[in-house]
Design brief:
This protein is mostly helical. The protein has ten helices and six strands; from the N terminus they run βαβββαααααβααβαα. About 20% of the residues are buried.
Length: about 230
Amino acid sequence: FRKGPIFANIVLADEINRTPPKTQAALLEAMQEHRVTVQGTTYVLQEPFFVFATQNPIELEGTYPLPEAQLDRFMFEIIIDHLPEELELTVVTSTTGTDREPPAQVVGREDLIDYQHLVRRVPVSDPVSRYALSIVRASRPEPNGKREFIQNFVSYGASVRAAQYLVLGGKARALTRGRFAVTYEDIRALAHPVLRHRLLTNFQAQSEGVTTDKLVDLLLESVPEPKSGM
């Protein structure tokens, strides 16, 4: 057995929507269980294990839609636009010369594991957790639902994994800002990257140009903060 590129701490799946469905399905076990099964033998992936992926948003030929189950495994969907002019110039000049600086290690494997444990130790109040869950639950179309925009434009809403990632992301965001508790603002700030790939819009939304980002905006406007908490 030869270990492939999935046996790494950080995996970059470039243009993941170009991989065929069989390959995408093979990633599910690795992303969820952090293990790989080949011919009945299970190999545990070394921690920490991260999967970063890019999608080509322009070309459709030769691409395959990602299944909802796999999309749900990604914590965030981040939209990267063109860089500012000066940064773009830096990219051009640094990649067209002969100088190549060797990469320097800035953090080790054990450090990353310690950071992960530290993030999970950040306290979050019950009202803040309920606020995150309320946003997620409000994204699901239901019979006699109160939010007309969800009923009209959403086929499937976010799963409970979205609420988990809102809280975990909020903990990490609080730490990076020198705070030791999650606030409502942390939840709101992460709502778009956590939810935009988890709201599956219907044909009516697509025909009217209603994006998932717009739906998240409406969700944040319609879901009130609990009266007590952070």
